[in-house]
Amino acid sequence: MPFIRSCPRTTDTQDMSANVLPARSRPAKRRVLNLSARGMLITDADLEVGQVTRFELNSRGFRVEGVAEVAHRSPSTTGLRFASLDPARERRLSALVARRVTRGQIAEAARTAPGAYLG
Questions:
Q1: How many C-beta atoms lie closer than 10 Å to residue 43's C-beta?
Q2: What is the four-CA torsion angle of 98, 103, 105, 108, rounded to 10 degrees?
Q3: Which residues of the chain form beta strands (DSSP E)?
């Protein structure tokens, strides 16, 4: 059975960073590689699978804090699953992801159909 994501995910994250706040070390600012309402993939952070950490997700005019669990790691990336977000922040995050997914779909359509009206 093929793997299917149950939640929209965007890679339109060039302006985003995540501050990972492990319990016993200094905060580490990481680049966000992709984002969904349920988690994010960041550049490598010194965390172990299963570890729980606080985080701050930042972008222009957007900031959200919460708690995440390390879901997976590779030599260059760390996948965080959001464990605790209050409902208002979760709605803001879902809306941000939806806007960026839509923006990405419009950009992709413009690349595949140059000159087409996409209004």
A1: 15
A2: -160
A3: 9-10, 17-21, 28-36, 39-43, 52-59, 62-73, 77-84
Does the pTM surpass 0.90? The reply is no
SS3 84: strand
pLDDT in tens, the chain (119 residues): 454 456 778 888 889 999 998 766 777 889 999 998 889 999 987 888 999 999 999 988 888 889 999 999 999 999 999 998 888 888 888 888 888 887 765 556 555 555 555 55
Distance CA 24, CA 2 (A): 39
Q: Name the phi and psi angles at 116, rounded to 5.
A: -75, 145
Q: Radius of gyration (Cα) for the chain, nearest Å?
A: 16
**CA–CA–CA angle 101, 107, 111 (5° rounding):** 140
DSSP per-residue string spanning 55-66: EEEEETTEEEEE
Long-range (24+ apart) CB contacts under 8 A made by 88-91 are 89/64, 89/65, 90/37
